[in-house]
Design brief:
Shape of chain B: globular
Radius of gyration of chain B: 32 Å
Distance between the termini of chain A: 34 Å
Largest sheet of chain A: 5 strands, mixed
CATH topology of chain A: Ribosomal Protein S5, domain 2
InterPro entries (chain A): Exosome_comp_Rrp42_subfam, PNPase/RNase_PH_dom_sf, Ribosomal_Su5_D2-typ_SF
Protein name (chain A): Ribosomal RNA-processing protein 42
GO biological process, one term (chain A): TRAMP-dependent tRNA surveillance pathway
Distance between the termini of chain B: 107 Å
Helix content of chain B: 25-40%
Shape of chain A: elongated
Radius of gyration of chain A: 25 Å
Subcellular location (chain A): Cytoplasm; Nucleus, Nucleolus
Strand content of chain A: 15-25%
CATH class of chain A: Alpha Beta
CATH superfamily of chain A: GHMP Kinase, N-terminal domain
Number of domains of chain B: 5
Oligomer: heterodimer
Keywords (chain A): Cytoplasm, Exosome, Ribonucleoprotein, Ribosomal protein
Largest sheet of chain B: 6 strands, mixed
Number of helices of chain A: 11
């Protein structure tokens, strides 16, 4: 879909674009620096009926809305068959006898539970105008976003209520303008903001009882807990997926449609904040993390969650024809008969467009990822900028 | 990357729009965030007659009228507010002291805030309904102010603020606004502007109000400044006093708790869903106040709940959650009579909880244990359970009287509060501890009290005084007590209901011209020889009959029922009132109508010699009384005569009477016998309950004699045709509305219900009771005859009747067809159609039948299953209460008729305990307990053989009493000196 959009550029234009982007420093058509994002407008809390929502609008007019709805769902026990029911009764028995919360019983541990079920606890739906929802591109986008979200296993943990219940999150990701450029960064950033603003009703019941919640919405805690005191920023962050591309030796962030059309390699890099090692135990997580993060106000440690290569539209562009082989310039007509076969064999000619071939080179990939994760680099900058959005 | 923020304040309407956000948890376990937008306005009037400004802006209806303003321009003043005042109560004030607001001596000009009204509805629906009724009454001058929608008084919840705090703040803000608004808008001098006084019992709220400069009072402070403050002060519940003086009591609440703590709601619900806890309605045994039972869906038989600790503060009727106890704690149901009055007679209401289980209670328990242990048969033990939580209290107002022995002698002079016990009329309700300043006035009176709370540290529930009904044993007080106790609506019909009556009043007539719309689709049956047969003095004549021979040898029989649905249209005020009342209640000296007199006794009543609208069922019956065909029609009839049963009987028996009317009654009589025989062949039960009639002196209506009811053939004549009509109509409306027909069913009783009776019969009389079907039961009941004791058969029937389920109305969609069966009548399908003047169900059936024969369009109210189910549920309760009230009324008058007399009568032993037995005296239809200690003084020793139901006494008096035995008893009335209660007392003269 979006990545393979038809590009209405002539080979000559492509060649020119490619050349200017390959310069050091590269010259981008819209005058941005290689690491600069397009300006955007962001707000949260735009859908009052949801648990969390956000809207981001790029200057080029592309706009996305994300709404997050949460529902309580009964956790499927890992065992199947008759033991299932037995287990349920035993758990209820524990509740009635007041044993609940007395510590994990030998057969089911939280970890096991979350590991087996976590993937079902989030449901993502992506909607791009003009595309069917089972379109390969849409499905790929939604898979990428979900993958990033679930990659660290921490996310599902936030949805855990007790051994019998968990929250199920429904993320509705809507692009509301026609996709002018590959919408991944836009959707990812909007999702990030929506999740940051997501709140779940406060749990009042204890242990494995049927959950019972506070009716006061104002008391509902954020899915990503906030640091107390200063500015109320979240202590941990949902992941973001960034789109990075390489042209020649240049590494370019947030490529526009035209830039993507000449990319040698395009990568979707999902990053999250690295976890402090002590915060793995679930029960005390929120508090320890609070304590941990209070004093590391400076640098955040980023970590790579996933990398996906995107098939750039440049691969489908028609090649330019060098003067040497162009009949208009007096080349032999015989060669005209199999232009395809011939171009493949041709050596690259300076100033003549030729679609990139082959996969991404490991070195280039490494460089790209390196650039993303760089301290004080783009990812940091993006996260900081998103931080600046007021959460409603 | 640069981000821009859009400010929400840029919205120009932001000031008028607010939203309310909260989390809602549904029953199915869904948890939703709910956002409600609130549009704020400034034209909601303050409704004070002093205010000029609001009058101009108040919204107008389509006709350009504004609602009249409610609050007086010269409100009453008090010592504290001589310039006059309006009241703004908060929710607590209504929750705790609704009775105060219903007083006619004070509490006028009340501003009921929307926030308070809504909160009250969430907390207590009955109180909410009472408040609504109050705001509708014209003389109380209550005004509902929609503070949440008025811009100036809208309050948004602050972060971290509890709902309660927010609501309190809203109340304060509204009170403050009212004060400022009035001062500003009335333009009067400062001194003349009425004060706006916030009433609250919440200390925190009061404190904050005073800080903000809002006049505020606690209930008791306010009441003290009123004229009859002393009297009113008693209506403020005690818990509230404690609340205000909490510091003093803090020690006590920390003290020992007598009852186990309740589970949290979520814990209970988890358990109930998981099947480990059970939820049901708690019932107390009428013979033993320490024994209760609960029927839960999980088990076929009820679970026993024994002892104070296991009952754990549950009161009869509460919806509770129980936990089954381990098997070693299973017990047999008690064979002892334990009456609270007798055992806890000498308790002191002031000293609380020094000894949770009193000495006497312990003793009673020991004997229980002895008995259980002496038995080796473990199979008898029944599962027991304990109450772990109360889901919903079913507390209401209780009628009772003060236990004189609980009144301390010294305290009765001064004005200080005394604690006394109130013994409720309903034996299943525990004693209620009451604090009052007017003990001396209240002793010997019937009083109305409510339960406020029952905390863990208190052995008895605490309550407060509502009002006095009058001296014990005066007719007015006792009748009102009965009506209150059975929740019978006895207030006069409100004006809105009377407005629905035809304008012509008693002059209403069937239109002369048959072109009148009233005649549309009505058949003219004025030419038929129709007559009605009813009890003597019956004014609301529902039904009339006729018969005439047809040329083919068959007979046409018509049952004509008053066409009430013509006058009572669905969903108007009269219909709503009738659906609430559900049924007419017949007391010995009084009738509480379901419909206004004009309809019930005149316009609808099928009086003789005048034309009336009717709904007719017309059959063609073969000489064997088989139905050849049936049709239904609206009609106009003219009854030729209104007979009493006795008159009709005389006329039929008098061979010299050969007129057509008499002949037609004879035909009906002959047919009715055949119908009855058919019914009995199908297995209809002839059941029995002791019915008596109280004869009154016509002038003073004092009871003079008691008679058992006589059975006449003409009664059975009317009954048979009514049954036939009901069955035919039931089939018709079910055919037309398979999902929503209103029907009546009588479920087959579970076999276990008869276990006890059938065992008793086997042991005592060597007879088997077969209960496989109603037919088998009818046959075995017929066989239960004792040649020496003609009453024995009736006795068994009475006892069998008590084992049955009660019949109920239901909506056909809620049950499968086989469940429609009426067990007692052995009819596949049944409904009530024949008494629309006195039963609401019949009225609904009329509407459905009218729609089924396409006389009128189907009204949504008779088509909506949900509404019909609600109607059925409510009229089932009303019906039962009406029956109970009627019986209680008879029992009271029987007692009065016997007053000062002592008669010897035959009686029969119905139930036997290890320390007493219950005797039924058929002549008076009363049953009473004779305890061992009543037999002789000192109390004789007794051995009770539970296997053979025999009680043998030795020592001071030697008698052997067996079940079903005929005994001779002396019936007197007796006033119990300690309780001030008059009751029937029986003394055993001899066992026969």
């Amino acid at each position: 879909m979006a990545s393979t959009q038809h590009v209405l550029l002539s080979p000559a234009e492509l060649a020119y674009l490619h050349a200017s982007l390959s310069l050091t420093p590269p010259i981008r058509p819209d005058g941005r620096t290689p690491t600069q994002f397009r300006p955007l407008v962001a707000e949260t809390g735009i859908l009052p009926g949801t648990n969390g929502s956000a809207r981001i609008c790029f200057a080029d007019g592309t706009e996305a809305i994300v709404g997050v709805k949460a529902e309580v769902e009964r956790t499927k026990l890992s065992r199947v068959g008759p033991a299932d029911e037995l287990e349920g009764t035993r758990l209820v028995g524990d509740v009635v006898e007041g044993l609940a919360g007395a510590g994990g019983t030998e057969n089911i541990t939280e970890k096991e539970e979350i590991a087996t079920n976590g993937a079902d606890w989030v449901e993502l739906s992506v909607e791009i105008p003009g595309y069917r929802d089972d379109d390969a591109g849409t499905a790929f986008l939604s898979a990428m976003l979900a993958e990033a979200l679930l990659a660290d296993g921490e996310f599902a943990r936030k949805l855990y209520i007790n051994r019998r219940f968990h929250w199920k999150l429904y993320l509705d990701i809507l692009l509301i303008s026609p996709p002018l450029s590959y919408p991944l960064p836009l959707l990812s950033l909007t999702t990030h903001l929506a999740l940051l603003s997501t709140r779940l009703p406060r749990l009042k019941s204890e242990g494995d009882e049927d959950p019972f919640f506070d009716d006061d919405w104002a008391a509902a805690p954020y899915l990503y807990p906030r640091r107390k005191g200063d500015s109320g920023k979240a202590t941990s962050k949902p992941p973001v997926s960034l789109l990075v591309m390489a042209v020649g030796n240049s590494i370019i962030f947030d490529p526009s449609k035209e830039e993507l059309a000449v990319a040698d390699v395009a990568l979707a890099v999902s990053i999250g904040e690295a976890l402090s090692s002590s915060s793995t135990s679930l029960g005390k997580k929120a508090t320890t993390e609070d304590a941990m993060n209070l004093d590391d106000g400076e640098g955040r440690s980023l970590r790579l969650l996933s990398v996906r290569t995107i098939d750039p539209p440049s691969r489908l562009t028609p090649p330019g024809v060098p003067n040497a082989t162009n009949s208009a310039y007096g080349a032999a007509t015989a060669t005209q008969k199999q232009p395809e076969a011939r171009t493949a064999e041709l050596e690259a000619v300076e100033g003549v467009w030729k679609a990139p071939r082959g996969g991404a080179k490991p070195l280039v990939m490494a460089a790209l990822v390196q650039k993303v994760l760089e301290k004080g680099g783009v990812a940091d900058e993006v996260l900081d900028a998103l931080d600046a959005v007021d959460l409603v | 990357m640069a981000s821009l923020k859009r400010s929400l304040d840029s919205d120009p309407f932001a000031a008028n729009i607010s939203s309310k956000v909260y989390v809602r948890s549904t029953k199915s376990g869904k948890v939703q965030k709910i956002v409600r937008e609130v549009y704020l306005r400034q034209d909601i009037p303050c409704s004070s007659k002093l205010c000029r400004g609001c009058l101009k802006t108040a919204p107008k209806d389509a006709a350009g009228r504004t609602l009249p303003f409610v609050l007086s321009d010269k409100p009453a003043g008090t010592k504290q507010f001589p310039q006059g005042h309006y009241l703004v109560p908060d929710t607590n004030a209504f929750l705790n002291a609704m009775d105060l607001f219903e007083q006619s001596s004070a509490f006028y000009d009340v501003v009921v805030l929307q926030v308070v009204l809504e909160e009250l509805r969430n907390r207590s629906l009955p109180l909410y309904n009472r408040l609504i009724a109050l705001t509708k009454s014209e003389d109380k001058r209550c005004y509902v102010f929609f503070n949440e929608f008025r811009l100036e008084t809208h309050v948004a919840r602050d972060e971290g603020e509890t709902v309660n705090d927010r609501n309190d703040r809203a109340v304060r803000k509204a009170a403050k606004w009212y004060g400022e608004h009035l001062a500003h808008a009335s333009g009067a001098k400062k001194a003349a502007v009425p004060a706006v006084v916030m009433l609250s019992n919440d200390r925190d709220n009061l404190r904050k109000a005073r800080q903000e400069g809002i006049p505020a009072c606690s209930l008791s402070e306010y009441v003290k400044t009123l004229k009859d403050g002393e009297r009113l002060l008693d209506m403020i519940p005690e818990t509230q006093d404690q609340d205000i003086t909490a510091s003093k009591d803090s020690r006590r609440s920390g003290g020992e708790n007598l009852y186990p703590e309740f589970f949290t709601m979520s814990k209970m619900m988890t358990g109930v869903k998981g099947g480990l806890l059970h939820q049901g309605i708690f019932n107390v045994s009428p013979y033993n106040y320490l024994e209760g039972s609960i029927r839960v869906p999980a088990f076929p038989k009820a679970l026993l709940i024994l002892g104070r600790e296991n009952i754990n503060r549950a009161v009869d009727g509460d919806l509770v959650v129980v936990q089954v106890l381990p098997k070693d704690q299973w017990k047999e149901p008690s064979t002892q009579v334990i009456e609270e009055e007798a055992i806890t007679k000498n308790e002191n209401p002031d000293a609380e909880g020094e000894d949770f289980v009193s000495e006497k209670e312990r003793k009673a328990l020991q004997e229980e244990v002895k008995r259980t242990q002496s038995k080796t048969t473990e199979g008898h033990a029944q599962p027991t359970a304990r109450v772990v939580g109360v889901v919903k209290r079913n507390w209401r107002q209780y009628v009772g009287h003060i236990d004189q022995s609980s009144v301390s002698k010294s305290g009765s002079q001064g004005r200080k509060q005394d604690s006394v016990f109130v013994i409720p009329m309903d034996k299943k309700i525990p004693k209620i501890r009451l604090r009052t300043r007017q003990v001396t006035e209240l002793i010997g009176k019937r009083i109305l009290v409510t339960i406020d709370a029952w905390d863990r540290a208190s052995r008895h529930p605490t309550g407060h005084f509502v009002r006095s009904l009058g001296e014990l044993e005066t007719k007015a007080a006792e009748t009102e007590a009965l009506l209150l106790e059975y929740d019978v609506q006895y207030r006069p019909f409100p004006k809105t209901v009377l407005d629905c009556l035809p304008k012509e009043g008693h002059d209403w007539k069937v239109p002369a011209s048959t072109d009148d719309p009233g005649w549309r689709d009505r058949e003219d049956l004025r030419g038929l020889l129709i007559c009605s047969i009813d009890p003597i003095g019956c004014q609301d004549i529902d039904d009339a009959l006729h018969s005439r021979p047809l040329p083919n040898g068959n007979t046409e029989v018509g049952v004509h029922i008053a066409d009430v649905s013509h006058f009572v249209k669905p969903n108007n005020a009269m219909d709503t009132e009738a659906s609430i009342r559900g049924t007419t209640v017949y007391l010995v000296d009084k009738r509480i109508d379901m419909l206004p007199m004009l309809l019930g006794t005149d316009l609808c009543s099928l009086k003789p010699y005048v034309e009336r609208y009717a709904f007719s069922v017309l059959w063609e019956l073969s000489p064997d009384a088989d139905i050849v065909n049936v049709r239904f029609t609206k009609s106009v009839i003219k009854s030729r005569e209104a007979f009493s049963y006795e008159q009709a009987q005389l006329r039929v028996d008098d061979a010299s009477q050969q007129d057509d009317l008499t002949k037609s009654i004879r035909t009906l009589l002959a047919l009715s016998r055949k119908l009855k025989q058919k019914r009995l062949d199908a297995g209809a039960l002839s059941l029995s309950s002791p019915e008596v009639k109280v004869q009154m002196e016509s002038e003073t209506s004092d009871p003079i004699d008691v008679k058992t009811k006589e059975l006449l053939d003409t009664m059975s004549l009317v009954e048979e045709f009514m049954l036939l009509a009901n069955t035919s109509v039931a089939a018709k409306i079910y055919e037309a509305f398979p999902q929503t027909a209103i029907l009546r069913r009588h479920a087959a009783p579970p076999k276990t219900n008869f276990d006890e009776l059938s065992n008793q019969l086997r042991v005592k009389k060597g007879r088997e009771l077969s209960v496989e079907s109603s037919r088998a039961l009818a046959d075995s009941l017929d066989a239960c005859v004792d040649p020496n004791n003609p009453f024995f058969n009736t006795l068994i029937r009475i006892m069998a009747t008590r084992c049955m389920m009660s019949a109920e109305y239901f909506c056909s969609g809620t049950q499968a067809y086989p469940e429609f069966r009426h067990y007692g009548l052995a009819s596949e399908i049944y409904t009530h159609f024949t008494s629309p003047i006195r039963r609401y169900a019949d009225l609904v059936a009329h509407r459905q039948l009218a729609a089924a024969i396409e006389y009128e369009a189907v009204d949504p109210s008779v088509r909506s299953r949900g509404r019909l189910e609600a109607v059925c549920k409510s009229i089932n309760v009303r019906h039962r209460n009406a029956q109970l009230a009627g019986r209680a009324s008879i029992a009271y008058y029987v007692g009065q008729a016997l007053r000062g007399k002592a008669t010897e009568e035959d009686g029969f032993v119905m139930k036997i305990f290890s320390n007493g037995f219950v005797v039924l005296v058929p002549r008076f239809g009363i049953e009473s307990l004779i305890r061992l200690r009543d037999l002789a003084d000192p109390e004789p020793q007794a051995t009770f053989d539970a296997e053979t139901y025999t009680l043998t006494t030795t020592g001071s008096r030697e008698v052997t009493v067996e079940l079903f035995q005929k005994v001779r008893v002396k019936v007197t009335d007796q006033k119990d000196e300690t309780t001030g209660k008059r009751g029937i007392k029986m003394e055993l003269i001899k066992a026969i």
